[in-house]
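Dig into these lines:

——
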Amino acid sequence: MGKTLFDKVWDSHVIEKINDGPDVLFIDKHFIHEVTSPVAFVGLKNRNLKVIYPERTFATADHNTPTINQHLPIKDKLSAMQVKTLEKNCNEHGIDFWGLGHKMNGIVHVIGPENGITQPGLTIVCGDSHTSTHGAFGAIAFGIGTSEVEMVLACQTIMQQKPLKMRINIDGELNSHVTPKDVALYIISKLSSSGATGYFVEYSGKVFKNMSMEGRMTVCNLSIEMGARGGMIAPDEKTYEYLRGREFAPKSEKWNKAVNYWSELKTDPGAIFDKEYEFKGEEIEPMITYGTNPGMAIPLSKSIPSSKESDSNSSYKKALDYMEFNEGDKMVGKKIDYVFLGSCTNGRIEDFRTFASIIKGKKKSKNIDAWLVPGSHKVLKSIIDEGILDILTDSGFKLREPGCSACLAMNDDKIPQGKYAVSTTNRNFEGRQGPGARTLLASPLVAAATAITGKITDPREII
């Protein structure tokens, strides 16, 4: 019987199988940041342990860092302490630390791929749920808790129950103005925010094959939002070309050897999945959320469904009450206060190119506060070098410095209570972007169109 891509990578990393229990899995790469690592290092210190393979761990400051005046001391005392503690811990254990101002600093799930650390066939973990992003390269990547961060630091292994396997296949062609973000929101709306719980998802089909690496990262990033442990896409020529020449990617003879191995990382014919779904690319439209979980999403051309249509429980009406929306409402035309472009979901250079393509030659609506936050300093440099900053500035937008920013309101960038934000992030939970904030998830295209008109706008009406 053939093996799935997931099986090939997982099984090759199992050190020991525990009868009626989890597998002991070797971890190739470990990313840490300032929020979920401090207690793990305290655990090491209390047990008089050192980091076993410091060269396999990479650290950045991103979650609660400011996105304005990063050259100045961090004002928030807790945030400043966490960043300083991370730097101290990394220095003590010989771990690469890319703090504020470092040319390689940025959001943890942006800097891994752009520096070639993320590669096909690896196991990758981080104390952050959206570690699933790295699965776009054919890696097994998932988020872990603080106690597990300590475990990986100490022994480079983790104990994990092997997930079930799901395949989501989408063939056909996407319509114009439909982005990878729309594809992901469409899938989540079909499966629900818990529909893939207990599974690791492989995305296959023409739609994903045609996506850029940035687009694949967006899709895998959002796997967690339908309950999956992670998501992955088989590596191909696009993967190799993306990685070629990057700092931590293999070089010379090692490169050829790596590509030969990577080319074998695909699901065999006849391999069995525990569950499979088929969708058609032509049926996907620009999407937007209307509720308080990513599964509550609809095409911009549709109206908010009734509670009878939604297959939801009483939380459905609670979500609409929180958002102050009604069943049957059209989303297009609703007034918006904030637009946020950024995060590990849509903070890459491709996202800024997409945003700029809509707003070029137009002006930002006066009623919109727009926060445009690059995912890394490398993205920021590309924005400047490619002339995108000039387009943004001419249209009345200001660019911030890299960080997680308003994705999770753990820093200064919080959407005020009661205000509506069209956001390119990954979660629209109650208060996710600030206490009382109301978040509508959408693509960079929808965000750009909304920023120009001041209300939810279908990008097909702008272009």
In short: The radius of gyration is 21 Å.
